[in-house]
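Retro notes, item 3 of 5
We never archived the inputs for the NDP complex last cycle. Fixing that now. Sequence and ligand:
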Amino acid sequence: MDAFVYKGDAVRGEQWRALFAEEAPDIDFRLWPETGDPAEVRWLASWQAPSELIAEFPNLEALFSLGAGVDQFNLVQLPEQVSLVRLVDPGIIAGIVEYAIFAVLALHRDIPRYLQDQREGVWRERKLTPAAERRVGVLGLGELGRAVLEALGPFGFKLHGWSRSAKTLDGVECFCGEGGLDALLARADILVCLLPLTPDTRGIINREAFAKLPAGARLVNLGRGGHVVQDDLLAALDEGRVSAAVLDVASPEPLPPGHPFYSDPRIILTPHIAAMTHPQSAARVVIANLRRAQAGLPFEGLVPLDRGY
Ligand code: NDP
Ligand code: OXD
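Structure as it came back at the time:
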């Protein structure tokens, strides 16, 4: 029998076990650390997998990330025969879409400023910019960026997007490659980051990028904390180059007590909760992928290691 090891918290692990029992009884589900004979383990699912863990399973064929991102893995140390598979999960996509809509609308409607007014006991209305006059620029046109742009469509914003390779999306002006970044930034009254963290994208939202945004632009970071140079963001806020930000991710996580992001009224900060991996949805995605492997088909979400996402 093919063995599958889940390494995550025990409560979710039991939910995964129940789903496997119901929907894939032929697969030998094992909840780490009860992994049985390591030689029988073909598949491992985990949020993180240090090389010592991977080395425990000599016949491992695939490592499933329990998230959409794979930057938490050391791609260089992955044994050659092990495929890395990220989670392309409707549950994660739905979570990100909900959060992105909340964040874009909150920034569009100046909610951080109104919250500050409320705390100061101030009753003050501000000019309302119609959505049709507001430009939203999304960095990353993958599973998540595309879903967010589609959900933003009905609000009437002007939509722009940026990716590595050229894309055509209905109702979205698309840019690509290094040469297209400045054009996207110049059009982003609200900039939304949904990039993977790779050597090419680390620190991409920095002082130079802030200088290219329209004055008073707003930022939503849903990618990884490492995309934003955090001191540059604070400087851009102080200079008025950026007027507010919604940050779901930070570097490091958790941010240490006393970090300026906790108390800055221009920032809405949440602890990496925009999307969560739910067993009900994620386990089914992984089972479907195991069936593909059993049928000799390529995994959905297979990560080309040289690309890094
Ligand atoms: P995908 O791999 O589907 O899409 C990534 C997108 O980024 C693609 O459009 C890709 O371009 C683009 N991209 C990658 N590198 C570059 C580059 N150097 N220059 C320009 N564009 C680039 O990823 P997902 O949409 O599924 O997820 C994106 C990220 O969201 C994850 O990696 C993770 O970091 C984050 N995330 C955050 C969550 C949260 O709770 N905050 C939850 C889930 C994910 P191309 O299309 O040309 O390949
Ligand atoms: C993910 C995440 O990558 O939760 O799925 O950030």
